Amino acid sequence: MLKEKAASNSDVLEQINAVYPIDSSMNPTDIAIYELDEGDGSISLLKTYQGLPSDDNFLNNMLEEANETFVELLEIQQTL
Predict the structure, then answer these.
(1) 24-33 contact pairs (CB < 8 A, 24+)
(2) pTM of the predicted model as reported, rounded to 2 decimal places
């Protein structure tokens, strides 16, 4: 997707390639990301938005919760 958008501009392609190997990019329509639920054994395909996996999934929800807890601990540390 990005590769195709930048194809007409070699300077942009070089800039992207300096940060991320452009040949390693994938078309989002060629991949599928699944979420496994150990509790009930289900497997579900994550929804996508503009070629990116939805933020509303178990992993992201747990990361958000852990980050919020960490922020609370940092706030307590600042009072010491």
Answers:
(1) 25/1, 27/1, 28/1, 28/52
(2) 0.57
DSSP type of residue 9: -
What are the distances in angstroms from CA 46 to CA 35, 54, 66, 76? 7, 7, 21, 36
What integer pLDDT is reported at residue 76 of this predicted model? Answer: 96
Is residue 43 scored above 90 in pLDDT?
A: yes
Which tokens belong to 77?
Answer: 């540390």
Binning pLDDT at 50, 70 and 90, where does residue 23 land?
Answer: confident
Structural tokens at position 70: 């960490």
